[in-house]
Sequence to fold (146 residues):
Amino acid sequence: MWGNLMGMDAVLASMWTAQQQPLVARAKDMYQRWADLTLARPRSTVVFARFLQQPAAQAILLDGLLWLDRSLARADDHFWREHYLEETLASLLDHCWRTCRVDLRRHNDVFAAFRSLLRALADRQHPIALELLDRVTRELLPGAER
Fold:
């Protein structure tokens, strides 16, 4: 229910356009409180990771990575069994790398959260995460081919 109230249900997800970025930015504190209270539930993590990929959520995308990483640091094996969890997180990380890698790398704490989430998925042998890890590594190594 909280996800619906925060505008993260499947019906509303496609309506979050770039025009709503200021609205999401103003509500950042509410999203953070929601994240702190609910991201311990795997279903909430899936819903939030999908929301962060919407154009309107660009305003909280980097902070959202921090919130997700903090929550997933406590996740057990049962947590990871949630349907679509790995796929949605991998999609989010790929989205972040494609759309805001410069900003990611400017903020050490956010980049550390990104790498932590990516490492967790790669450790689970998720194919998108493994491919993304390879891309990130090649880009960050000096003299690597691009």
Q: What stands out?
A: Residues 85-106 form the longest helix (22 residues). The chain has a mean pLDDT of 89. Residues 2-8+18-140 form one domain. The chain has one domain: 2-8+18-140.
